[in-house]
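yo

u said u wanted the structure for the complex thing, so here. seqs first:
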Amino acid sequence: MKQPLLDMRGIIKSFSGVRALNGVSIQLDPGEALSICGENGSGKSTLMKVLSGVWPFGSYEGEIYFEGNLVKASSIRDTEALGIVIIHQELALVKELTVLENIFLGNELGSFARLNDEEMHRRTSELLARVKLDVLPDTPIRDLGVGQQQLVEIAKALNKNVKLLILDEPTSSLTTTEIEILLNIVSELKQQGIACIYISHKLEEVLALSNWVTVIRDGDHIDTRSAENLTQNDIISMMVGRELDELFPREEHDIGDVILKVNHATAKQAGASRAQVEDVSFELRQGEILGIAGLIGSGRTELMQCLYGSYDGNYEAEVELHGESLAIRSQRTALEAGIAMVPEDRKRHGIVPIMSVGRNITLSVLSQYSSWFGAINEDQESQDIDNYIAQLKVKTASSELSIKNLSGGNQQKAIIAKCLLTHPKILILDEPTRGIDVGAKYEIYKLMFALVKQGMSIIMVSSELSEVIGISDRVLVMHEGRLKGQFDHQGLTQEMIMNCAIKEDTANV
Amino acid sequence: MFKTIKTSQLQLFAMLAAMLLIVVFFSFATDGAFVSPRNISNLIRQTAIVGVLAIGMVFVIISAEIDLSVGSMMGLLGGIAAILDVWFHFPILLTVLITVVSGLVLGLFNGWWVAYQKVPSFIVTLAGMLAFRGILVGLTDGATVAPTSSSLAIVGQSYIPSGWGISVVALLCLGLVARVYTRRQARQKHGVENQSAKFEYAKATIAVSVLMGLLFILESYRGIPTPILIMGGLILIATYVAKRTSFGRRVYAIGGNIEATRMSGVNVERTKMLVFGFNGMMVAVAALILTSRLGAGSPAAGNMAELDAIAACVIGGTSLAGGVGAVFGAIMGALIMASLDNGMSMLDVPTFWQLIVKGMILLLAVWLDVKTKKAQ
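structre next:
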């Protein structure tokens, strides 16, 4: 039998004891395309990092053969030299440089002192023609749209004599026409004998483009099937296929009247062509846990940022809290109104790493302990810190330990404590259990139910579908900035959410 | 003043060791003249100006910003004080008040540009460095404003009567011990592990004996210099503000992670502006001491003083990345710098060598800091 271009055998990759990949094998011939599908966090990116050399040879188990030779890459440069090029979701072009300069960045032709501009110009024009991009080589990247930039990335890859092109969610920020152009280019590259690995949530594209579809779930290689005769539903059921286990300690609680109404929430970055949140309206009841699902980039987080006043672009929303309209312009107004948020990015937005656990907990409510000139009543402060550390079971040697020394789960609990100290009526949890061990997860779920029983309302954004279903009373699904579906938790399955979150057509609403 | 965090203690000991080394070295090199009461009195008087500047600067750096305008601002404020005193014969209290308020306004001006207009502090204060100096030269026509009145001389040149000095220091020592005791009690109550009593009280005893020794030496010369008393008072206030007020807490938080602090509902813009305002007031105090000591307002006064203040903070363990630092450390840094200046001058080391040595010490201090942090 002929040797495949790429042969990854039984790849296993662990992070501090947790297996992110558990024996994944894929094979690919020249001119073929293989798509990798899986939920957020299923291990797709880790697999690509292993393949592209971000995780060097020796840091994983299993073997990678490329053109029949064992790959022992120690960095991305090594795999690029072999002809494996990865194009990331976030483009890696230098915005201030021209198309030509970007394509030849780090591989400039000519000597150190004198660049061979003529030759580079000629080659760039050739490459641009190959990817059917009709711009001059001297155009600065910032003047190009995202789709065009994507094509420049491909041209850059072609310049490196690419044999295997990896596209990581290339179309997540493209318009329909741009997607079509991109798909055409990839098909042509296939005909020229270039293999392609395609990572996308957009199953239509996956089916249109690929010869093979590999599904990964929780690091396990579920199956690799020929794309012929495969349907979107087949892929979805392979992606989610897990039973809802007893991880979710659902407790009965009463749900009261509507306390929060959000109408026509819209959020857009300055200068962006597409709004990140577009005309979203929803209601929240007292004592309710409202789940918000959707793919990354669907606008979930941005919607929450609008509610908490932390969105960094232009946003508008008619917010009514307890029947009174409320203009949320900053985090301060949100907190004063009784809305607290545990942010998605714990390191960036959650903790002040070098400060102690205790001081992180009281950061939002310092004025509660302060005299008229700001002196902190340390006795009162320590009392609250002690109480909340005990109540939320934050495991720390001392409240004076730097919070950076705590595990993710305990950091998260400390951040929740910080929010609870403000005595919120509405608590927003954005990915509350991301990167947290099972035990801490369980405790956080328990806490959520305890809080709603006391009459608090919770909005939970989560990528983990089982969590969304297992915890929420009601689930909203977002898709490309819009609210696409609304479900009661009873009878809700992961397939229903996935269908709603992925497919273009509006079903199940 | 210091919590149980290991690094900060290591830093404290390193600084004390460096200080001790410098004292021992210069004492031998100068046949004991370095530790004569007269010289020690001079030395710590020299420390006063950079020390007061460092008190303000340390807050700026903890909040992860920088202020390069401090030297020019000190010149300008000193010039204003001299003009009010020499040209208009304002009473001393009014002169002090107007100077301090001017400092506050200039600082808030810097802070407003940094916090609300989001112009990097490096640029804002670089602009201030140029502009403030320009205003000073314009106001004074480039000439020295002199001589200042005898009442203004009190600020920078006088000494505290010995009875007063002794009681102030005694009170300070009592306060120090009381603070150690109450903090231990509070920590015990909340079940936080205390350091061993022996260790903490030994520390307090050392601090008390250093204060007492210093008092003894100063009294055997002319008494406690007024600028040192002013600096001492400001150290206490600033330490209190940094460690025990919500404002200080927020400054550390902003330097540690500004995004998380904003997400916690802290008004980071206002806090930052106030930091610069506070710094401006400290600059005003330093300016008053400077003008009083020189007996004149000079258009070149305070040139490059910002670099001394920044160096003092950095040598004292303040991280330019923000979030880490202490007033006491910055003062120690200022003292180390002043000792080097003073000692080398006594040894008749040429000025160019003094600059080279100071530069090397700064580099060394930060290098050691980086190394120890990495080792952890």
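Chain A has 17 helices and 20 strands. The first strand of chain A starts at residue 6 and ends at 15.
cya
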